[in-house]
Amino acid sequence: MDTQVNPPAPIDLHRALHGYFIEDIQEGMSAFYSRTVTEADIVLFAGISGDFNPLHLNREFAEQTRFGGNIAHGMLTASLISTVVGTKLPGPGAIYMSQNLRFTAPVKAGDTVTARVVVTGVDAAKRRCRLDTKCTVGNQIVVTGDALTMVPSRASFEAGAT
Fold this sequence. Notes:
The protein is α+β, with helices and mostly antiparallel strands.
């Protein structure tokens, strides 16, 4: 009896994981990501960023502020926008060129943040995609802004120059 098994065909991960091409993006497209922020997220972000502001990490200090307790780093919240841009829309292969942010309300451990991007402009010739970006907790906007990304074209991808 022959028990030899043929190995599976190799997977082209670059092709399999790639996001949208500039030719596929249209104004009005949107995507989102939601995450409940934990105390562990806040501590880990402090360690990664080096931002050990006691407003984020010291309960006694933070209780004496106008927030009445610890709040998440604004950039931790904003990083959820990067999750959408890098994994959903435009997705893998896209590159951030700029991001403007305005922080409008605090986020605390236990809050579920939803980051949403909406395509507001496409320049196919320059391979640019303009996005409206927002983070919300419930119906309250906590971060608002806009971003500009560079998105690969189908031709550049096929040529191996994304």
